[in-house]
Write a structure and sequence with these properties.
There is one protein chain. The protein is an alpha+beta fold. It has three domains: 10-64, no CATH class; 91-174, Winged helix-like DNA-binding domain superfamily/Winged helix DNA-binding domain (Arc Repressor Mutant, subunit A, Orthogonal Bundle); 185-236, Zinc/RING finger domain, C3HC4 (zinc finger) (Herpes Virus-1, 2-Layer Sandwich), CATH 3.30.40.10. 42% of the residues lie in helices and 15% in strands. The protein is built from nine helices and ten strands. The strands form four sheets. A three-stranded antiparallel sheet has the order 1-3-2, sandwiched between helices. It has a three-stranded antiparallel sheet with strand order 4-6-5. The chain has a two-stranded antiparallel sheet with strand order 7-8. It is globular, with a radius of gyration of 20 Å.
Length: 237
């Protein structure tokens, strides 16, 4: 494969460094960054070759068990890129930044979000976990600070006191979530990436992201499940 054989240039390295320091990068920003890196290092730039450019980086990252992955924001359906450490299947990728107690709070928050009907957990429910932690009970004030850090570091998103998993978290922890929540975690029937906030068919149980539901039914005369063809009973966003 010609793409895979390509050498890693300074442009590739620069792109990778920025992606790693961002944690997560929106696709339009990644395209601008691609252009900037190529122009800065005076290498050939083709606007439609971002995926090839990333494939070259991923080829060189393989021995390091790392990969640049693409994921979709559950909020608006926009594509994002994040660098994923494939060697760490646990929530250990967060371990260098947080204490054991903070990680336990994160895991319990994750439980609430993934086991919920709509992919959200209220701040009240999360803060109630603070004094039930095995590692060390913490005060609600302290727990509020920890939640704030999770949001700032793009592991959680918050809207009106409701928390869900950030796109970064979904991209980085997809494998962890699929293997640890086998009974409830599902992939979107349309884009095939992990769906936390989703609508589910009452007849056959498939799930779809809200932006994917919107896009899919826009082209249909009446809302029917793409798998079992039964009437889609959820309100289309």
């Amino acid at each position: 494969n010609a793409v895979m054989a390509t050498q890693m240039t300074d442009a590739h390295r620069r792109f990778l460094q920025v992606l790693m320091s961002n944690g997560i990068t929106e696709a339009s920003e990644a395209r601008k960054l691609h252009q900037h890196c190529c122009e800065t290092d005076k290498v050939y730039y083709a606007h439609d070759k971002l995926d090839d450019f990333i494939s070259t980086i991923n080829h060189h990252l393989q021995p390091l068990f790392m990969q640049i992955r693409k994921g979709i924001s559950e909020d608006d359906g926009r594509a994002h890129y994040a660098v994923v450490n494939l060697a760490e299947t646990e929530v250990t990728k967060m371990a260098s930044d947080y204490t054991e107690t903070e990680l336990e709070l994160f895991r319990k928050t994750m439980d609430l979000i993934i086991l919920s009907e709509n992919g959200f957990a209220s701040s009240t429910d999360i803060l109630n976990l603070a004094d039930q932690l095995q590692t060390k009970k913490i005060k609600k004030k302290e727990a509020e600070q920890v939640l704030k850090a999770f949001v700032e570091d793009k592991w959680l998103s918050e809207k009106n006191g409701e928390y869900t998993l950030h796109t970064r978290c979904i991209i980085e922890m997809e494998q962890y979530i699929l293997s640890n929540y086998q009974d409830v975690a599902r992939k979107c029937n349309i884009c095939h990436s992990l769906a936390i906030q989703s609508q589910v068919c009452e007849s056959c149980g498939i799930g779809m992201h809200l932006p994917c539901v919107r896009k899919y039914f826009r082209a249909q005369t009446e809302p029917r499940c793409p798998t079992c063809n039964e009437f889609w009973s959820c309100d289309i966003p």
